[in-house]
């Protein structure tokens, strides 16, 4: 089916506007069917993020914004978190209840956080995944909290490609719990936009990438837009969606079979370090891929620059101790 003229114009504009930053992207997909509760996500960035996996026990004191109204609290739940880049931004996290929260790239042509209101609690943009997994057990709980606070802009400094520079956080978020309830949260022109539901009630929410804003991706779903082979954000998302929808069509409920099948999503959006994107004439690197099994509370991490596959779970650290334990680091980072 052909896309409408409106969608085509929007995508052309998005591609043109985002060419300078197209190598800062990710793709995610969620599959919940019977006893299977799994997600897959790639982390793409033009430069090494030195990802570090940590386990954090309950009771750690946290500050989520450096403002007068910034929220501080002790973590209610133990969690595993992946910290990216020298600032230690939590790009991916899962807590002991199976609630997953992640940051993906959404360009500044779309992302604009609201000004914080006096007296309303603040969470900085880069702290949202940590805030979610520290404090909530379900997607509904997390969304209720996010609707009641201000998520404010945060300057992130010295990212690869931005040495000696601080930029506003170009991000949006996806959260999903063990029941299959998921949500995409964006801040567009200062307005909070939340898309939520299960695969049955809101199938598009289970698949996420980058530019343009999420409402355009949902229109593409409605119009039956077919994926191309490019590594543009909407093509990556549509390829991931096609593979997961095939799992539903085949009603794959065996966890072992689903785990092997979900690898096809990563294989179809993975770019490694050496693929040239013809649209921008540049290399588009996938730094790592994370496979999350919420039912078994485990991670399988595949880094692009090593043959080693890393396995993580909640038995690897003391969940009840208010401390952070380093569980794994990139073996190539000295």
How would you summarize this macromolecular structure in one to three sentences?
The chain has 334 residues and is α+β, with helices and mostly antiparallel strands. It is built from 6 helices and 22 strands. Strands 15-14-13-8-7-6-3-22 form an 8-stranded antiparallel beta sheet, with helices on one face. It has a 6-stranded antiparallel beta sheet with strand order 16-1-2-19-20-21, covered by helices on one side. Strands 4-5 form a two-stranded antiparallel sheet.
How is this fold's topology laid out?
Elements: H1 5-17, E1 25-33, E2 36-44, E3 52-56, E4 61-63, E5 72-74, E6 79-84, E7 89-95, E8 100-105, E9 122-124, H2 128-135, H3 139-147, E10 150-152, E11 155-157, E12 166-168, E13 171-176, E14 182-188, E15 191-197, E16 207-208, H4 214-222, H5 233-249, H6 255-269, E17 276-277, E18 282-283, E19 286-293, E20 298-303, E21 309-313, E22 324-329
Parallel strand pairs: 9-10
Antiparallel strand pairs: 1-2, 1-16, 2-19, 3-6, 3-22, 4-5, 6-7, 7-8, 8-13, 11-12, 13-14, 14-15, 17-18, 19-20, 20-21
Helix pairs in contact: 5-6
């Amino acid at each position: 089916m052909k896309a409408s003229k409106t969608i085509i114009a929007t995508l052309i504009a998005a591609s043109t506007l985002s060419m300078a930053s197209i190598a800062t992207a990710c793709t995610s997909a969620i599959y919940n069917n019977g006893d299977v509760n799994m997600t897959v996500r790639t982390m793409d960035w033009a430069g090494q993020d030195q990802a570090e996996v940590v386990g954090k026990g309950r009771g750690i004191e946290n500050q989520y914004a450096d403002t007068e109204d910034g929220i501080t609290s002790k973590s209610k739940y133990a969690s595993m978190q992946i910290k990216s880049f020298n600032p230690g931004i939590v790009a991916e996290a899962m807590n002991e209840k199976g609630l997953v929260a992640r940051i993906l790239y959404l360009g500044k042509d779309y992302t604009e956080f609201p000004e914080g209101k006096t007296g309303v609690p603040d969470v900085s943009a880069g702290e949202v995944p940590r805030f979610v997994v520290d404090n909530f057990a379900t997607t509904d709980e997390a969304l209720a909290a996010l609707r009641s606070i201000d998520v404010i802009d945060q300057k992130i400094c010295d990212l690869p490609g931005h040495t000696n520079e601080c930029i506003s956080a170009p991000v949006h978020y996806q959260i999903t719990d063990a029941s299959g309830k998921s949500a995409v949260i964006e801040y567009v022109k200062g307005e909070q936009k939340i898309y939520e539901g299960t695969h049955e009630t809101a199938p598009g929410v289970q698949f996420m990438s980058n530019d343009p804003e999420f409402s355009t991706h949902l229109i593409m779903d409605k119009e039956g837009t077919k994926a191309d082979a490019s590594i543009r954000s909407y093509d990556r998302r549509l390829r991931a969606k096609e593979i997961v929808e095939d799992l539903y069509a085949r009603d794959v409920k065996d966890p072992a079979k689903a785990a092997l099948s979900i690898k096809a999503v990563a294989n179809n959006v993975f770019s490694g370090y050496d693929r040239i994107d013809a649209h921008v004439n540049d290399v588009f690197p996938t730094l790592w891929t994370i496979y999350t099994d919420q039912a078994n509370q485990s991670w399988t991490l595949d880094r692009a620059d090593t043959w080693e596959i890393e396995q993580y779970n909640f038995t690897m650290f003391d969940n009840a101790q208010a401390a952070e334990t380093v569980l794994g680091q990139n073996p190539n980072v000295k």
